[in-house]
């Protein structure tokens, strides 16, 4: 252990010098840190930055607030009325009025019933939402006629002579479907036999067909010679829309098994018969008992 603590003269001088350097450096660092730093602040830029932060805070607070949605003032509850700033008396007046199944149909009438102040009315009235029939009233005479009085056969236009532009007047038809209807009609010499054939026009929905037949109907049907389903052969049956050779064969075979058809609706019992097209197929057929 003695060898660790025994130093020569040169070693002692070196250790003393090292300690002295450490003390000097510590003092220098202490005094340097104590000196105040001169920082130049641009007050104009700082104010601008602070103003921007404040505006962002205001926007954030506005977004956090619950948004007011439109509402029908006839259905204001106690809680809703209080949140809008209405007094209990004003809310009670509204409820007393509605108790007899009466309706408020304008902002002015709402104020007359509730007796709220002009300032409160101005604040809440932009959120009032009355029914469409109140906001956009229509003529009762025209509306009733259009909705409830269907056109007679004489009032309707002939579907077999209707032009593309005339058909476009029906809501939902447009240029595309009106051209489809006319092109399909012109495939047959003489046009349609009956309104039901509109079902064969590709793309027409039942709702759209109903709208068309409210304005148009077949007044000049195409003249055809109906086929006796109890006597027709396969070659005759295939001339009918929606009947091919396989179906014609099945119709003839079923006729033999049944000893003739008693009604045209019995055709729906034939294998692979297009049931949804029965009314169109019946246009070309008649029933006469086979001898």
From TrEMBL:
Top-level taxon of the source organism: Bacteria
Entry protein name: Helix-hairpin-helix domain-containing protein
Keyword Glycosyltransferase annotated: no
Transmembrane segments: 12-33
Keywords, comma-separated and alphabetical: Membrane, Transmembrane, Transmembrane helix
Record's keyword annotation contains Transmembrane: yes
InterPro entries: Endo/Exo/Phosphatase_dom_1, RuvA_2-like
